Structure formats: C-alpha cells, structure tokens
Amino acid sequence: MTRTTNTSSSAGAAAQAAAPIVSLGRRRFLRHALLGSAAVLAVAGGGFAWLRRSPVDQLPVPETIRHLSDAEYHLLHRAAQVLLPVAGSALVPLSQVPVVANIDHMVGLLPAHIRKQVGMGLTLFDNAAVIAGWHGRRFVDLDDAAAVDYFDRWASGNSIQRALSTLVKRFVYIAYWRDPVTWEAVEFDGPVSERWGLAYLGNAPLPQEQGEERA
Amino acid sequence: MRIINVPREGVPVFTAEDVRRDPAMGRRVNVKTEVVVVGSGAGGAMVAYELAKAGRQVLVLESGRYYPSARFTEHLGDTMTQVYREQGSQFNSTADVLFPEGQCIGGSTVIGAGVMQRPPDSLLQRWANELSLPQFAPATVASVFAEVGREQFVHLNEAHEINATAHKVIKGCEKMGFSWKPVARNVRQCALTGHCLAGCLSDRKMSSLVTYLPWAAAYGARLFADCHVSRVLLRGGRAVGVEAVVRDPQTGAEVSRMRVDAEVVVVAGGAMQTPLLLQRSQIPDSSGQIGRNMAVQPFVQVLAQYEEPLYGFRGALVGVEIDEFMESDGYMFFSALAEPEQLMVQGEQAAGAEHIEFMKRYRHLAGLNAFALDEGRGTVSWEGDLETGRKVISWNPSQAEFDKLKHGAALAARVFFAAGAKRVHMPSFRPLHVDSVFELDHTLDQISHGLKGMYSLRINSFSAHGTCRMGTDRFQSVANPQGEVHDVKGLFLADASLLPEPIPAAPHWTVQVMAKQVARNILASASGLFLDGNA
Asked: What UniProt keywords are attached to this protein's entry (chain B) (predicted)?
C-alpha cells in the first residue's frame, strides 16, 4: 500500500500549491494567453505532434494513482527526480517519500475548476519545452541539466512562465518536505511539546475586578 | 460580590454538530440577544468580554471551527487546513501575495506570533490632532495599551527568548549602528517550541482562545462556531440583527439557518471579512470607502546562510526587531525562520542541486522579515450575489512600494552580511543569492517590477487594515470616531478595518485597544442603544 499524508491536512497544501495556476485562471489577459499558448501547441501540426511523442508515454503508471493523468504522472515523476536529486546526500531518498502519490492525493482534493486549470498548466509546462529553448522534446525527455535549466529559465521568464514553474516546484517541494520523515535529515525537530513533557497551562486567569472574586 | 467561574481549559462553544444533534433547534434557529458580535478574533473577543462583563447579553458568531488547543499537532500543514482561512491559501487576485488569516474560535490571535507593538506616538498624536480622533492621543490611549498589556502578560522578550537567528540580527545591527530591541509578545512562560504559527499546544500564547473568550463566557457570553454570517439586518436606518448559515466545518454543507435579533451589532471579522459583510448587506456607503484603502503591510523574508549551524528554527519564533527605520521610513524588521514546508511556499525555490544544497544548510539559516509601510491602495470586494458571489482581494505593489520592499530586503541583507553571513538569498521568485555585500546592488537590479510587480518579489501580508476606516467625515470614512458606522445606528465595527491610515506597527495590540474603546463607547451610549436604557 502506498503511504500518503492524511487527507484533511493535505487540502491546505493542495490549495497553496495550486495557487499560481488560479491566478492565471482569474486574470482574463493571462487566461487568454494560457489558452492561446496551449492551442498553438495543440494545433502546431504534424511536426509538433511527432516531436512531442515520448517513450515515457509507454511507461506504466502505478495503479494507486487515482487523480493524475498518465502524462501528468510522468511529468511530476520526472520533475521530482530533477528537483530533488538527493542521491549522495543525507536527505531521504525519493523511494521513501511518495512524492507523486502525495501530489496525486492533493490534486484529488482540489475543486474541479482548479483541478482543470492545474491540468492545463502542467500540460503546457511539459509540451512547451518542444519549442521553448528549442529543445525539440517535451520536459519529460530532457536530461537532468537541461531540465534544471528549463526550470531556471522559466523562473526568470514572463509572468506565465514564473507562475507555471512555481506551480510544479511547489507541488513537488511541498509533497516532499511536509512529510515528517524528511525532517530529521535537516535536523528540524518537528513537534516537541509532548516529547518535552510540557505542562499544559490552560486558560489565563481572569483580570481581577473590584467586587468580584475568581472561582 | 459576584463569583466568576473561568473554566480551567477550553471555552463553551455551540458548534454545527451541536445544532445538528439538537432536534429543538431544527433547520431554522431564531435567537434574541442584546449584542451580537460577528467574529471572535482580537477585536470581537475583546468587545464580547467588555460587554458581557458589563452585564450585557452577548452572542458571538464565528465562521471558523472550534479547535481547542489540545488538538494542535505542531504540524503547520495540519493547522493550516483546520484553522487558517481557505486552508492557508488566501491570496490576492494574482495569487502571488499570500494573506494568512485565522478562521477559528479566536481568529488570527490563535495563529499569530504574539508580536505586540505600539504605533509610534507621533502617529497617534497626528491622528488625534489632524484626523480629530482624540481617543488616540498618546496621553489618553497609553492607559488602555497598558491595561490590555497587563491582561495578556505582554512583555519584552527576555534573554532566553532570543534565539540564534535573532542573535545574528543583533550582531549585524550593532555593527551597522542600527537600533534594535527585543520584541514584545503576549505569552506567559514561553516554552520556546518555535511552533507559534501552528497554534500553541500548551496554551502559553495569550490568544483570545485562552483569554477574552473564556473570560467573556464566564460572564455569560454565548459562542457559536461554524456560523457564517451572510448579512446584517437593517430596519429604519438601524441594525437589528444578522442572518447566518451554520455549516458543517468538514463538508461545508448547510446544517441550519440562523436569525439573530439584536439591539446592537458589532462586526469584527477583520480587515478582509468585515467590508465583505457590509457590502453583502448593502450597508449605506456615503463615502464609497467600504473595502477600499486597504493597507497590507507587505513583507519579504530574507534568508542568510552562516558557516556555523544556528538551528534558527528553534526557540521563540520572533526574537528581536530593528526599530531604526520605523518612524523615519516605515520599515519594520522581525527575526524569524519558517519551518520547511512553509519555507517552500514563502521562500527559496531553486531547482535541483541548488535546492538540495540550500536545504542541507537549513540549520545554518537565519531569517529576517522586512516589512514596509505601503500606500493603502488595496481593495477587497464582494463580486456577485449573496449566495454565489466571491471575495476579490486586489493588491499588487506599485513601483514605489516595490522599490521600498527591495530596499528593505537590501537593508536586511546588509545586516546579515555585517553579522558574517556567507550567502544571502533574495526574496524573489527567480532564485537569486548574493555571496558578498559588494554584489548586492547588482543582484537587486535583476529584480524588476515587471507587470504589476507580479511573481517578482515573494510578498506576504499578515496584517491588512484600514478597509472601513474611522473618521469624522461621513463622506471620507466608514465609521465615526466611536466605531459606529455612519448612518447606521447600532452597527459598530471593532477590528483592523477601522484603522484610519496605514500603520508602521503590527496592529494586534492597537486593534485590541480600539475594540476596548468601542465597547466602552457602546456602554457609554447605552441609553440610546439598548431597550432597557441602562448605562
């Protein structure tokens, strides 16, 4: 069974991660730009369709993934590898933190209209690599260096690019760092009150008034 | 002599679950009271306490859930989902400026860092003289600040409450010749867990949850959680009550409709929610200022790396402030370092190996939040009808505000370098860092305002205010100096929305002082407000 963080506390994380795409959906100019870009990519003809093919599309998706599409799963799986190259460090390996499963869980908690926008944003981020930077390949097929460079370029690009790269990074980083198993490696203490046996002080005493007595 | 019983812990609160279980309440609930208070945060709790203590019948309605301290987990993600408005994702309309706000019994006092700051006397004197608000004259208001301070154990941080992050700020200030001081906080016997933003599990932070609300309840005030007030009821130019919907806090499903008939209505939902309620209620707005003039007190977090481990996330979250620029330029600086998950939302987001290196050095980090006084140009508005409409928060930095925030970030970076920082991370969406003070200006030049300042600097706001400003002129302000809405008898405001201008100080203490004054104004005008006519 795949371990994910609990349902109720993931809702807030999902909302925070998805916020950048909500901004694009709210602003007419940006929404049109987003839709326009997606449309251009979609109808750019057979050449684009040929270029956007990827061997990754043939890879299986775990049965436990319930909310992400296959393409979204592969994108986020690749993004996690690129954004969190923990091998050789003391940080917890991705095999022990179900990053994409956590994102799948978070995405499932989003309202339908935001979920749809997140899907559009992820699709655009993945496919735009074919043209942006003249990679000629989708993001999922970029090698590690090119993928990091893609993130960095988008982080200093236009408003849409900054929002979309933030969207992907937030989902991945929040899904990783909110898991308590990742904290020990950076020596973050997490919850301490019970461990320290802190006394519970309860309500503060009532300010004393003349002619009154506290019971 | 009367004997007042304050419960040892917790507050007696009616919840949606209580309403659902009680067949006598049904799908429609009608309640009569003398005073209904909307909101249970800093302002609402204070008003409820003062009026209940004076013998008035008080009912407090809170849209958030009742979340007793014992349920806090010290996991910020959990707390955000349970007690933060919109699960910690209340953003402006472009979703790049975060406005964290509490939505629970106790409101934002439950999730704040406990920072208590008085505005400069020069500002208060100006309000008294130039805005004809004599209640703010320093000589007059000082005793109210002192009274509120005593009630909540407000004190300057002692030596053990100043952590390693704060010590770096102190060292930098000493070298730069900047004035600094320990932060004043409303906490008793702080246990130094560093989890203030996730709620205080052992009830050391003096939030309304453990002070004014249990005290108000001890004097007979009744509290309802999960109760979303949809509008204020008016009759003949007078507020006569409110309508609300009781919702299941888990599902949002409607449990019951509530109508409260009251002789006085006090709205204290905070600077965001109060104007929205007034707009939904179609309150007469001669000034056109409801929801306008919003000051957001924007801030950016500058992070610095040091050679030695600091464990800057341990200890009291906020240790010291730099007060050098508060009066002259409106800058405030507070030492603080976020926990990892929140850092991912607010802070550095480099990609790949750079991110890993950054997090490997998490224990070497120190943080300084640079707040700037903004121009008060923001708006909050309700768009659409009562049932299906939505809130729109509009604020993006102007070029001048953006430049100010950048300058604040530069000052914070200089303080850190003066204290020996090896690297300073700029608070920009584009990952930028500086390894020497000599690179600072060049790096800052790479952060441009761009399109409305969107997705450039990482900006947050904890302290919106001024959206229903107080004043004497009904064509320029929403409420009169007593806190009563112009042209609506019996409708009072008691929260940060009342602040007449942007203030260069954390507003918590000032809001509680204003709320105490508003409550006393209500009592002083009792003969014209209450049916029993008693003062």
From this structure: FAD, Flavoprotein, Oxidoreductase
Question: Tokens 């107080």 belong to which residue?
Answer: B470
Spatial separation of the C-alpha atoms in residues B202 and B204, rounded to whole Å: 6
Distance to chain B for A44, nearest Cα, Å: 28
Partners of residue B115 on adjacent β-strands: B185
Residues B326 and B212 in one domain: no
Mutate to test the interface with A, among B8, B53, B455 (most CBs of A within 10 A): B455
pLDDT at A35: 60
Among chain A residues, the shortest Cα distance to B150 is held by A207
Dihedral sign for Cα atoms in the order B115, B373, B335, B176: negative
Residue A1 has pLDDT above 50, yes or no: no
More confident residue, A215 or A179: A179
Question: Residue B177 maps to which CATH number?
Answer: 3.30.410
pLDDT at B213: 98
Is the domain of B429 the same as that of B501? no
Segments of chain B with pLDDT less than 50: none
Domains of chain A, residue spans: 7-196
Cβ contact (<8 Å) for B360 and A211? no
Burial class from Cβ neighbours inside 10 Å (0-12, 13-18, 19+) for residue B231 reads middle
Contact B359 A186 (CB under 8 A): yes
Question: Does residue A18 register a pLDDT over 80?
Answer: no
Average pLDDT over residues A27-43: 57
Cβ of B349 within 8 Å of Cβ of A169? The answer is yes
> Which member of B1, B8, B69 has the closest CB to residue A213?
B1
Cβ distance of A91 and B360 shorter than 8 Å = yes
> What's residue B247's pLDDT?
96
Question: Nearest CB to A207: which of B87, B89, B151?
Answer: B151
A16–B3: do the CB atoms touch at under 8 Å? no
A44 pLDDT tier (thresholds 50, 70, 90): low
Instruction: Give the relative orientation of helices A99-108 and A159-177 as an angle to the nearest 10 degrees.
Output: 110
The answer as to whether B393 is a domain residue is no
**Total domains present in chain B:** 2
Assess whether B354 and B486 both reside in one domain. Answer: no
Q: Is B351 close to A205, i.e. CB distance below 8 A?
A: no
pLDDT at A214: 55
Q: What is the ipTM for the molecules in this complex?
A: 0.92
Q: What is residue B262's three-state secondary structure?
A: strand
